[in-house]
């Protein structure tokens, strides 16, 4: 069990923003920063779930690739376009993370499917993400907190829907997510330097 120095989000509280909301990064940054531990010995580990073989499911790896180009002594990223974390290697990756870092604080990032009016929404919540739920897969939960992006509609031929998701939408959502996570990390690491350096 991970103990936090900061007050966690209220149970079942979810922060939601649209990917094109001009205040979206600011809102998500504040939400992510509110749950990060103050303990400088704990590593912030981002697990970006998905595959580059499906446009919709590439949200996690794209966000991971953006975050992996950034640097920080307490930041580690697993799951990129070059080395994705997906159904086949997720359990092994989680085991490696627990063996590699002492008491890491993990944030899971994953794509999801939802209602038509929710497509393009990004959600942040305390607690783990349940990857694969949208396509009826049973995979281990991931994270002390998580970010998900609704990339398309659910309810019918989910694999086909994921493969036919607009790349522009996924790229925009991944950028918002990466900006928010890195800005929250910078805020936590350098309280007087709140501006992200991500480009």
Describe this structure in words.
By secondary structure, this protein is an alpha/beta fold. It is built from 5 helices and 6 strands; from the N terminus they run βαβαβαβββαα. The protein has a 6-stranded mixed β-sheet. The longest helix has 23 residues, at 167-189. It starts with 13 loop residues before the first strand and ends in a 10-residue tail after the last helix.
Name the average pLDDT: 86
Indicate the overall shape: globular
Category by helix and strand content: alpha/beta
Going across the biggest sheet, name each strand in turn.
Answer: 1-5-6-4-2-3
Q: What series of H and E elements makes up the topology?
A: EHEHEHEEEHH
Using only C-alpha atoms, the radius of gyration works out to 15 Å
Distance between the termini: 35 Å
| Unreliable spans | 1-7, 192-199
Sheet with the most strands, sense and barrel status:
6 strands, mixed
How many individual β-strands? 6
Question: How much of the polypeptide forms β-strand, as a percent range?
Answer: 15-25%
Q: Please count the helical segments.
A: 5
Helix content: 25-40%
Q: Which properties best describe this structure?
A:
globular, alpha/beta, disordered N terminus, 199 residues
């Amino acid at each position: 069990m991970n103990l936090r120095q900061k007050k966690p989000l209220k149970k079942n509280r979810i922060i939601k923003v649209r990917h094109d909301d001009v205040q979206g990064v600011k809102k998500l940054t504040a939400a992510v920063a509110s749950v990060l531990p103050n303990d400088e010995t704990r590593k912030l580990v981002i697990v970006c779930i998905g595959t580059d073989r499906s446009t919709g499911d590439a949200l996690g790896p794209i966000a991971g690739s953006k975050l992996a180009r950034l640097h920080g002594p307490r930041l580690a990223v697993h799951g990129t376009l070059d080395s994705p974390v997906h159904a086949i290697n997720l359990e092994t990756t989680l085991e490696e993370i627990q063996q590699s870092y002492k008491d890491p604080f993990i944030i899971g990032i994953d794509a999801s499917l939802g209602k038509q009016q929710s497509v393009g929404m990004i959600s942040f919540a305390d607690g783990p993400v349940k990857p694969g739920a949208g396509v009826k897969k049973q995979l281990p939960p991931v994270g002390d907190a998580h970010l998900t992006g609704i990339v398309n509609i659910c309810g019918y031929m989910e694999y086909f829907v994921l493969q036919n998701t607009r790349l522009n939408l996924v790229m925009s959502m991944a950028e918002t997510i990466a900006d928010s996570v890195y800005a929250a990390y910078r805020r936590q690491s350098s309280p007087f330097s709140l501006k992200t350096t991500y480009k």
